[in-house]
Amino acid sequence: MARITYVEFNGTEHVVDVANGMTVMEGARDNGIPGIEADCGGACACSTCHVYVDSAWVEKLPARDAMEEDMLDFAYEPDAERSRLTCQIKVSDDLDGLKVFMPEKQI
Amino acid sequence: MAGIVVVGAGQAGAALVAKLRALGHDGPLTLIGAEPVPPYQRPPLSKAYLLGEMDMERLFLRPESYYTEQGITLITDAAVTALDPARRQIRMGDQTLDYEQLALTTGAIPRRLPAAMGGDLAGVHTVRTLADVDRMAPEFVAGRRMVVIGGGYIGLEAAAVGAKRGLAVTVIEAAPRILQRVAAAETSDYMRQLHAGQGVTLLEGTPLERLEGRDGRDIAAHLADGRVIAADFVVCGIGITPDDALAQAAGLTIDNGIATNAQGRTSDPHVWAAGDCASFPWRGEQMRLESVQNAIDQAECVAANMLGADQPYDPVPWFWSDQYDMKLQIAGLGTGHDRVIVRESGSARSHWYFGGGTFLAVDAMNDPRAFMLGKRLLTQRRSPDPARLADPAVDLKDLLR
Ligand SMILES: Cc1cc2nc3c(=O)[nH]c(=O)nc-3n(C[C@H](O)[C@H](O)[C@H](O)COP(=O)(O)OP(=O)(O)OC[C@H]3O[C@@H](n4cnc5c(N)ncnc54)[C@H](O)[C@@H]3O)c2cc1C
Ligand code: FES
Fold it and tell me: Of A1, A80, B324, B341, which shows the fewest CB atoms inside 10 Å?
C-alpha cells in the first residue's frame, strides 16, 4: 500500500491510501478525486490521466515506456521530466509518499 | 422524489450522473441498470479481462461507494420495463417512478445469428456483457478450435486473445475484407498480416451459411462456398443494434437509434439520450457512434444541457483497439474518403484519410504520436499537407506549425 497525495490544479490536496497492484490513476478514480479523467480506463490510449510528478519522485518511479512517452509528447503542456500518465504507474510500497499535481486541463 | 432519472447504468449512464454532480446539480438523482453490477467499462472484456489479466473490480468505472457518497441512488439488476412520457413516469415491473427529466443510456444489443442458422446452439457466444464473457472465458483453453464470425474490431480482438492463448483460430468474414465497414483497405491489409503472422486463419468474402452442432457441442461451420470448418466453440462479432425498445414503445422518434437533436434531447422535451443507443445530427444525417469517447462526451454534453447549458454535441470521434502487442488508435471518421496517405517509420505506421482534400481521420498503428497529432488537427479543423505527411523525415510536430 502507498499513501499518495493528489493535488488539484486549484491547490486542493487529497491524501489517500492506494492498494498495491492498482495504478495511480485508479487511486484517483476510486476515491472520486477530480482532475484525472482517464477516458480510456487505463489503456494508454487517451492521455487524459496526465499529471506532473513531484520533482523529488521523478527519479524514483519506473521509467516511461515508448508508448507513454509518445502519448505525453502531445498531451496538454507536457513537462519533459515531470509528466506521467497515471494509468501507467503501478502502485507498490515503494510509492509511499508519492505526490502528483494535476494539469490545468487534460486535453 | 422525482428529480433526474437515468436508465441504463453503463459507460454513458455513469458519465452522465457523475457530470451532473460535478456541475453542481444536487437534486435527487437515480441511475438504473439491468445488469447485476455497478457500471463498468466494456473494452477490456475482449482484451485484458478475457486474457485473465484483469480482475472484475478493476472494470468498474467507480467503486460502489462513489454513488452513495455523491447521493446517487444506484439501482442494479433492475430492468425498466416501460416509459410513459405523458405522465413522466417509468415502470420497473409493477413499481413506478416519477421523473422531472429522464436520460436514456440503454446501450446496444449484440446481433445474434438467427436460430435457423444455429445461433442458439450451445457454445455460440456474443461479446457484450460481463456475464457473456464470464460464460465464454472457460472455452479459451489451448489446443481448442475457435471460429469467430465477423472480422470487426470485437471479433479480431477475441481472435487475438484466442491465438495468444494457443487456440486454433479461424475468422470468417462475409465482406470482401475484414474491417470493411470501418476502415480503408490499407488498414484491413495491415490487420490481416498481423493476424496471419500469429497463426490465425482469415477467410474473407466467405459468408457463413449455417452452424450445425453435433452432440450439442462439436460445431461445424458451413460456409457459402461449401467449406466446412470444425469448431469447439464460436464467437459472434457481427455488430450491434441500438437498444431503443423503451423509447420506441413510448412513441419517441426513432431514426438509427433513439433520435436526438444536437443537444441530445429526444422528440419528448423531458427525455434525453446518449451513448450507443442515441443518434444525433452530424453532417446532414442522424449519426450514431459506438465508442467510449462518444458515450462519455455525449453523456457529459447531455448532463450540461439537462441543467440548461444548451450546447450542441460536436464530437471529434476517437477509438482504440488492442490486438496482440499492437495498439490501434483512430481519430476522426474515415467515411467518404477518396485518398489514403500511408506514413511509416520503424514499427510506427499511420493511415491518413482525406476526402476532397480535407483531412478526415487517421488510423495509427503503434504510433501514438500520429493519433495525438491527428486528433489535435481535427479539433482545430486543419488538414496537414499530404506530401509532408508521407515523408517520414518530416517530424509530426512540424505538421502543427
Ligand atoms: C467487448 C467490447 C469491446 C469494446 N472495445 C472498445 C474499445 O476498445 N474502444 C472503444 O472506444 N469502445 C469499445 N467498445 C464500445 C464501448 O464499450 C461502448 O460504445 C460503450 O460501452 C457504450 O456505452 P453505453 O453506456 O451507451 O452502453 P453500455 O455500456 O452498453 O450500457 C448500457 C446499459 O444499459 C442497460 N440497459 C439497457 N436497457 C435497460 C433497461 N430497460 N433498464 C435498465 N437498464 C438497461 C444495459 O444492461 C447496459 O448495462 C467495446 C464494446 C464491447 C462490447
Ligand atoms: S487512462 Fe487513458 S491514457 Fe491513462
Answer: A80
